[in-house]
Structure prediction request, 186 residues.
Amino acid sequence: MQWLHYGRDGTGCALAFDGGKLEKSPFALRRVLYTEDEQRQVVDAILNAAWLAVSQLIAGNLFGVAEANLMIESTASHLWETAICMKHPSFADEREWRLYTIETLAPMSAATAQQVGAKAMKMSFRNCSGRVVPYLEIEYDPLPLSEIVLGSSDPHLEDDPGIQFLLQRSNLGGLKVRRSSVPVRH
Prediction:
């Protein structure tokens, strides 16, 4: 299904990433949740934790306006992060993971970028089905790829000189390139 929808009928390629090298502060790498039960469990856990914290503050007579505002912000932030990683059950075949950050309002400083091993992020925009969608350009040197998987109908060979030259120029010489064994079904 993925090759049919995202891989140009099997003529494209898939890039496999090393998640351990991809996930660096302020980014998080999370598995997307597709089932309503999974989604409900995560949301319930967030709300139950918030309720428990509020109950303890009230019991200790420590709950004021400042604490209420902090609790609301914290709970909303956790719910927002969870919502980023939820999709309708009909997309479960995708088995998607998402790399995201919620720290996008202020540009990343050069010092922070150096600390997390990424270059400074630049907010850009693209058109997606008539909508303006913001995204962050993130550069890694080298890109933390673990392999390239060619679609079953891709005309390139695994040892294609153009692909090998591109990998060398990108500091990725020796990266495994293989062909997918998954046939494209229409």
Remarks:
- The CA atoms of residues 114 and 120 lie 8 Å apart.
- Residues 34-99 form one domain.
- Strands lie at 13-17, 28-31, 97-100, 122-128, 131-137, 145-150, 176-179.
